[in-house]
Amino acid sequence: MDQYGILAAADTVRFERLLPGPIDRVWAFLTESDKRASWLASGPMDLHAGGRVELLFRNSDLSPTQEAVPDKYRQYDDGNGAKLVARVTRCEPPRLLSHTWSGEPGLESEVTYELTAKGDKVLLVLTHRRLGSRTEMLSVSGGWHTHLDILAARLSDDVPAPFWSTYGRLEAEYDRRLPAS
Fold first, then answer.
1. Residue 1, domain member (yes or no)
2. Which residues cross the membrane (predicted)?
3. CA dist., res. 117 & res. 141, Å (int)
4. What is the CATH number of the domain that holds 70?
């Protein structure tokens, strides 16, 4: 399975990962703040359509390997974290979760996590829709790829790679992989 995200539409990137199961464990890593904080962001999530989602990103804390935050991203990692407030658009435990991501109300992008049991593994399909520009597509693609690598490491009880250097490398790779127009 290719670890790189693909363009599913002009404004949509999709990732597939086969993760250690069972499905309820992966669902917990998507929905429970303490587990989600180990790979993405902490914060409460009301698990029903219309529910509030708060994500507090502390990307420098996702790996025990410490490294400097690149100047380009210092505003998002000043020690206090970066906060995103969103709303749940669909919730069908433990198989499907969608929520808005960022943007003006009514124009937000949307993330969908779909889980399917595959024996002792779980197929996660993550789709991020309604991305407004190529710059946003590159940032989101590099970010999700990095976060999903960390999730896979956490679920496998491995030590995740450092966030910032991994993200920088992957963002540059997506710049090469994704069409310019």
1. no
2. none
3. 24
4. 3.30.530.20
Tokens of 24: 């309820």
What is the dihedral sign for C-alpha 133, 58, 153, 169? positive
Residues 154-168: tens digit of each pLDDT: 999 999 999 999 999
Phi and psi (nearest 5°) for 129? -110, 165
Position 115 in a domain: yes
Residue type (1 letter), 82: A
Residues 6 or more apart whose Cβ sits within 8 Å of residue 22: 117, 120, 122
| Structure tokens given for 131 | 């991305």
The 10s digit of each residue's pLDDT in 95-143 is 999 999 987 777 899 999 999 999 999 999 999 999 999 999 999 999 9
pLDDT tens, position by position, 1-59: 689 999 999 999 999 999 999 999 999 999 999 999 999 999 999 999 999 999 999 99
Q: Omega before 162 cis (within 30°)?
A: no
Q: Is 115 in contact with 18 (CB distance < 8 Å)?
A: no
What is the total count of domains within the chain? Answer: 1
Distances in Å between the Cα of 12 and the Cα atoms of 112, 131, 132, 161 are 11, 6, 9, 26
Q: For residue 126, give both structure tokens.
A: 């993550």
Q: What is the reported pTM? A: 0.95
